[in-house]
Amino acid sequence: QVQLVESGGGSVQAGGSLRLSCAASGIIYSPNTMGWYRQAPGKQRELVAAITSGGRINYADSVKGRFTGSRDNAKSTVYLQMNSLKPEDTAVYYCYFEQAGWSKVWGQGTQVTVSS
């Protein structure tokens, strides 16, 4: 079993920056994928960034050029640097972890609020 602990998030004005972190612990194999989803009120959860243990990163079109994902495999930790934040980025951000043969694991979620 894998556990995730998220940190970061908060409130910021439009144009500002925030950084999220997510640390995984437990039984971890490679390859695996960690990343971030977000869910705004009344909307479906959507993928923001997916980061493989091999270093491949996929972004949602809405965040390309503004958000940067990274990971430290030695620490089993992923990061999401969010720049040029917009009010429409306001959501609860959920870290996730997945590896073959196991169900996807979710973090507790962290609120990101961007005011105009």
What is the gist of this entry?
This protein has 116 residues and is mainly beta. 0% of the residues lie in helices and 58% in strands. The strands form two sheets. Strands 2, 4, 5, 6, 9, 10 and 11 form a seven-stranded mixed beta sheet that branches. Strands 1-3-8-7 form a four-stranded antiparallel beta sheet, with no helix packed on it.
Attribute tags:
116 residues; 4-stranded antiparallel β-sheet
Structure explained in plain terms:
28% of the residues are buried. Helices cover 0% and strands 58% of the residues. The chain has 116 residues and is mainly β. The protein has strands at residues 2-8, 10-13, 18-26, 32-39, 46-52, 57-59, 67-72, 77-82, 91-99, 105-106, 110-115. Strands 2, 4, 5, 6, 9, 10 and 11 form a 7-stranded mixed sheet that branches. Strands 1-3-8-7 form a 4-stranded antiparallel sheet, with no helix packed on it.
Oligomer: single chain
> What proportion of the residues is helical, as a percent range?
under 10%
Low-confidence stretches: none
Number of helices: 0
Proportion in β-strands: over 45%
Largest sheet: 7 strands, mixed
Derived from helix and strand composition plus strand pairing, the structural class reads: mainly beta
Rg over C-alpha atoms, rounded to the nearest angstrom: 14 Å
What is the overall silhouette? globular
What's the rounded overall pLDDT mean? 96
Q: What is the tally of beta strands? A: 11
H and E string: EEEEEEEEEEE
Q: What is the terminal-to-terminal distance?
A: 40 Å
